[in-house]
Amino acid sequence: MSSHDTSEGEETDTKTERSAETLLSEHEAQLNALIADVQGPDADSVETQLPNLGLGLGRRDFMKAGAAVGVLGSVAGCAGQGDSQGGTATPSSSHGDVPDHFVPPGEHDKYYGFWSGGHSGEVRVMGIPSMRELTRIPVFNRECAKGYGFDDGTGEMLKDAGDYTWGDSHHPSLSETDGKYDGEYLFVNDKANGRVARVNLKYFETDAILDVPNVQSVHGCCIQSPNTEYVFANGEFRTPLPNDGRDVDDPSKYVSLFSAIDPESMDVLWQVKVSGNLDIADSDKDGRWLLSSSYNDEEGVEIEEMTRDDRDSVKAFDVPAIQKAVDAGKYEEVNGVPVVDGTRESSLNKGDNPLVRYIPTPKSPHCVEVTPDGKYGIVAGKLSPTVSIIDIEKLGTEPDPAKTIVGQPKLGLGPLHTTYDDRGHGYTSLFIDSQVVKWDIEKAVESPKGSEEAILGKIDVHYNPGHIQAVQAMSVEPTGDWLVVLNKLSKDRFLPVGPIHPDNDQLIYIGNDKDNETGGMELVSDHPVYPEPHDAIMVHKDKLDPAKIWDAKDYEGEREYISEKNSGIERLDDSTVEVNMSSKRSEFGLREFTVKEGDEVQMTVTNIEKSPDIIHGVAIPEHDINLALAPQDTREVTFTADDPGVYWIYCTYFCSALHLEMRSRMIVEPRD
Ligand code: K7E
Ligand code: CUA
After folding, report:
1. What is the pTM of this model?
2. Residue 4: CB partners within 8 Å, gap ≥ 6?
């Protein structure tokens, strides 16, 4: 195990931790009083008393705090403290100087939002500010509505990427040119299986998935600003390297790896092994530093060990320096990937230009987000009520890593994520307090560590927020108008739908800076969401240019375009037939075709329509075949016709008045 220096800034830190403890116990006392009145079903009888996390806060208390703060929020709302304090979603007219978030029928939203879908494995596309769900993009999940994973192309892509049937998508990142979203690609991680996927934003379709070698779980994932030269992926869980049965009983040999991926080829270029672990990542705006939070510098395998120390670290990767080391051959190769040693003891980290800088930060930080001007990386404390402000310029000049932290305001309990407007403000989600806090970044740098001077206002959210994201806040051009809070719990906010509740995404207007309790933040709407988005990223609609129909040139050489004329069936050998079929309103290019029992059928179908929005499906009962074809798209599917009989192929998308009649007949003759 690496023993890292904890002497720097110890004093400030111990103080921070103590005051956190005091704060928490006061908070607990208030909550207990409240809970006595409004006890939910047996919150206290939960038996999962997890170990003390070092702040005098067990898991049970953690959850209870959230629950009660939630109650506080609703009570405040009902007591008429104004709609900004919660209560119900109100008609926009009552918000005065808040622009309309209601988008009238037939009109379009101003922004696209891309939501990670959590363990649904997908990405969801939202309209902002209406918060209407526009579509879903299946990524790590096989999905029937769009036929994703059913045709040979997407099926093989999923198979080659590990053949898992699900994923856990957390962090969507949009490609950039000059620090601005360029509308080309969206990248997203799979925490569950250590993968990174690319979504092509011309077709809103996943076009590549990489199963990252040597890592088990990819959590942090982002592109390199400003020009998307790399995609970065953080291996969260420490494992033996390679994880092939060696060192299983020796956790000191486990490692976490930071990976750099080529965004075009989607291959791993190199990896860096580190001391401790890696969690969430963000890039600076100049293509030099990649900052990563990490919560297990203890290199523990159990929760008590992982939370033992008062400090963990943020790791700052000097990307050009690492690339140079790789080019100079300073690596070992593991499973075909160059792995550079970036641990604390590594010789590459000695001297004036270490590849990886370890910046001590308070206890189990959760996240790091770089400010739009590229000046600071803001690290949320999670188990500390502070956020730490890292001066990015100092990373290259300041010899003492602890001194790159130039501010450490105390913001509230359970800070998780921070987002930004265009006016120098940070907005941080407070998981335990169930609030969003707005604060002045420069003021926080000027004021003493641990002070609350920079806070401009707080607003209750419902309940227990995780990620928080304002429009274009991860780029150099935040718009500073709308912000969404992705709340983990909805509790009483919606009609009950059984024990698995929806999450609650809330929309907050941040365009008015006001000298009031919330600093001008106004909560405008609630939106139930299917479990469980983690993060979102939003972009102005004009930055995207999605195709309305397919351009057959885009798959030329891969799939053959099937017109009505070249529809037909051809026997390739005794057990293989090729079936080519066009589709249009309201007929397939073949009214029927005959194959033999046991034949492998290689079917190619083109939707020959050119009118946007006319989709045709190809469903074959009892064969698990389900394709969806947009105009000018071609898909292939290979299957075995196992059982003799008649099978009605039909169209699944309601395409015309004769949609029900849009059918073909597959006859499977018994083999004699
Ligand atoms: Cu904070 Cu996976 Cu981004 Cu969830 S992580 S909250
Ligand atoms: Cu084609 Cu329904």
Report:
1. 0.88
2. 275, 297, 311, 313, 344, 358, 360
